[in-house]
Every structure is written in C-alpha cells, then in structure tokens.
Amino acid sequence: MFPTGHNIRHCTLQELEEYFLEAGQPKFRAKQVYEWLWQKKALHFADMTNLSKELRQQLGEQFTLPALQVDEMQVSEDGTRKFRFRTWDGHFVEGVLIPTEARLTACVSSQIGCSLSCKFCATVTWSASGIYNSTRSMMRWC
Length: 142
Prior knowledge:
Blueprint: E1 6-7, H1 13-22, H2 28-38, H3 53-62, E2 63-64, E3 69-75, E4 81-86, E5 92-99, E6 104-108, E7 111-112, E8 130-131
Parallel strand pairs: 1-2
Antiparallel strand pairs: 3-4, 4-5, 5-6, 7-8
Helix pairs in contact: 1-2
C-alpha cells in the first residue's frame, strides 16, 4: 500500500487501519500507532512499547519517522531562547521563546527561509525554499 520509506506521519488513521488489515494485524493497531504519533509524540518506533518488537521492527522497515533536531540554541540576558532546528531533510527553521511577566510567547517559522525581517530572527538570512507542512513542523514540544 505504501512505498518503503514513506513518512508514517503522512498517513491518516483510515490509511493506517487499511495498512494493518492488509498486513494481517488487528485494526486497533492503527489507533495505537496514531496515538503514539500525535498524542504521545513518539520519536522512534521503538518508543511504541504497547506494540510487539516484531511489529515495531516491521514499521521501521516500512516507514520513516522523521523529527526536528535542535541544531543550535542561544539564550539572551532577558531569558529569550532562540532555537535553530534541522529538519529531517537537512533544512533549517528557527523558533524563539520570548518570556514576559505575563506569558511566554512562541514564534515558530512557518517556512524554510523567510521574507520578513524580524530583527531577532535569523531565518530571514536563509533563502526561502519552501512552506513548512505539518509533518516538517512536528516537534517534541507540540
């Protein structure tokens, strides 16, 4: 149904149900995997501990589960934290956490590279090469 190496986060719950049924697994496996992806924020198939080791290995052979990696982090005197993330395909995107007395503001790039010129953001220095999709922007802290 899916080519080897397909990003599992691109699958809908219904597509996962069909995949598991075709693989001879019970339909409820799809919901288990979907919860690991979107509620429990699993970064690796090995994290999905309510699945058998064999099934986790099978998923790892069939699908990919790419995630953002923190490439660089800077902290300013006022507590602002700036992150540069590396996407699974080697691009960079930036996010900034800006603390105030009343709240914590998060600014996350919605594309790789940016045409805006926010003074605190380095993303503008990278050439705009694509709009971020929901899979690329999936982070550990969502």
